[in-house]
Amino acid sequence: MITIYKAKDYQEMSRRAANIIFAQVTLKPDCVLGLATGSTPVGAYRQLVEWYEKGELDFSGVTSVNLDEYKGLSGDNDQSYRYFMNRNLFDHINIDKSRTFVPDGLEGDSEKACAEYNQIIRSVGGIDLQLLGIGGNGHIGFNEPAEAFEPETHCVDLTESTIQANARFFERIEDVPKQAYTMGIKNIMSAKKILLIATGENKAEALYQSLYGKITPKVPASILQLHKDVTVVADEAALSRIIKERGELV
Ligand code: GLP
């Protein structure tokens, strides 16, 4: 089941998303959070840090597993997702860093890297709340549009549109890695709860197709229609196509 909350802008989206994560950590202090990168969750992470600094949140019992990592980048590389997570969240809260997991981008053997990550996801006992952003082409994690859904962690060739979209973080487009390790659809769908966040007009079509279109691996996020507990928090711009087609959300 999918519940959609409309936020007026990025700030409100971030606050509402952070609220849901706050509730999860408060209700189950030893929960497993599935975390995401990209520009969309930055505001929610900032809000969580603020609440932590005020003494309202305690992450000491939390475990986290991230969705994905670029193949070939080390955790010290400022473009790696490990670096992103440290800088935007982990360095500022009291989470035990040894309980924060991101696929190992430096493991050149894809099969080994993916098997190890699947093992980590199993060993932490599954994900309580998975945070997701969405790509302009409907990708989640780095599950790109494809002919079939990939169930578990796998190595993907990034699509040209994803490389272009992510180029803004790199000095030169040639520096954007062409491959990544990502959790698969079964890993994501096994999470007890999913929180999808989206902001901006450029996500409007992907969000509409994902939530109301055909369920197809060509729009990876469309699989979320089959999950029993999905919350979508999106701003007006990201919801504009849905509102146009289906009317105002209540
Ligand atoms: C990236 C990440 C995704 C993210 C998406 C959108 O490629 N792998 O996890 O959700 O693209 O990113 P952004 O939030 O910057 O739009």
Describe the structure.
The protein has helices spanning 10-27, 42-53, 81-88, 110-123, 160-166, 185-189, 204-212, 236-246, and strands at residues 2-7, 32-35, 63-66, 68-70, 100-101, 129-132, 154-157, 179-182, 193-198, 230-235. The longest helix is centred in the N-terminal third of the chain and has 18 residues, at 10-27. It is α/β, with parallel strands linked by helices and 250 residues long. A 7-stranded parallel sheet has the order 1-10-9-6-2-3-5, sandwiched between helices. A 3-stranded antiparallel sheet has the order 4-8-7, covered by helices on one side. 34% of the residues lie in helices and 17% in strands. The chain is built from 8 helices and 10 strands. α2 (42-53) links the parallel β2 and β3 (63-66). 2-amino-2-deoxy-6-O-phosphono-alpha-D-glucopyranose binds at residues 36-40, 67-68, 133-135, 141-142, 162, 166. The site of 2-amino-2-deoxy-6-O-phosphono-alpha-D-glucopyranose (GLP) has 14 residues, from α5.
